[in-house]
């Protein structure tokens, strides 16, 4: 792995991947016919958290 500070660390990459999986999970759940009543709200929060984390990484110069 490159030591270039512009690239994500393994931890940061793992966090981004986890947050993306959460968004995908809640998209799938919200589209089900018998979806949880709060699936749409959880999807909103998952998307917001992913966006916030990516913006934070970009603000410190990470390439994502």
Can you offer a commentary on this structure?
The longest helix is centred in the first third of the chain and has 22 residues, at 10-31. Helix content is 67%, strand content 0%. The protein has one domain (10-59). The protein has 64 residues and is mainly alpha-helical. The chain has 2 helices and no strands. α1 runs antiparallel to α2.
Reconstruct the topology from this structure:
Blueprint: H1 10-31, H2 39-59
Helix pairs in contact: 1-2
Give a brief outline of the structure.
This protein is an all-alpha fold. Helices cover 67% and strands 0% of the residues.
Model regions low in confidence, pLDDT < 50 over at least 5 residues: none
Tell me the radius of gyration: 14 Å
Provide a count of the helices.
2
Kindly state the mean pLDDT as a whole number?
93
Strand content: under 5%
The outline comes out as: elongated
Biggest sheet descriptor: none
Q: Compute the number of structural domains.
A: 1
One letter per element, helices H and strands E, the order comes to HH
- State the share of residues found in helices, binned by percent: 55-70%
SS class: mainly alpha
Instruction: Calculate the terminal CA-CA distance, rounded to whole Å.
Output: 16 Å
Q: How many β strands by DSSP?
A: 0
What labels would you give this structure?
single chain, 64 residues, mainly alpha, 2 helices, elongated
